[in-house]
Design a protein that fits this description.
With 107 residues, the protein is mostly helical. It contains seven helices and no strands. The longest helix has 13 residues. It is elongated and about 50 Å long.
């Protein structure tokens, strides 16, 4: 699917979607990026968030933060998912996720 991403984005998107649906985290991150940038089909924040979240729960720390980023900018309604995603990303070793969870010092 990676080769098709440049030459045939719609086909690559379909292949990554099939892989992500089968819980292959290596497919979920590029699929989410394609949804987020409208590559190979329509732009779709909801689908990007879902794919990033699937990759996150398959232990991809960066994907946890990317899903939380979509929530934090208000693109998607959420409850406490942003915190849970950042917490998981931090637990998996993503330092930027840990930084966002730390309280900011007051001047």
């Amino acid at each position: 699917a990676a080769r098709e991403r440049a030459s045939d984005p719609p086909r690559a998107r379909a292949l990554f979607a099939r892989g992500c649906d089968a819980y292959q985290r290596a497919s979920c991150l590029p699929l989410a990026d394609m949804y987020l940038h409208g590559e190979g089909g329509p732009w779709d924040d909801e689908a990007a968030s879902k794919a990033y979240t699937q990759a996150c729960y398959a232990s991809d720390a960066e994907s946890c933060r990317r899903a939380a980023d979509l929530l934090s900018r208000g693109a998607i309604d959420h409850d406490d998912r942003e915190f849970r995603l950042l917490d998981r990303g931090c637990t998996l070793g993503d330092v930027p996720s840990c930084d966002r969870l730390s309280p900011k010092p007051t001047p």
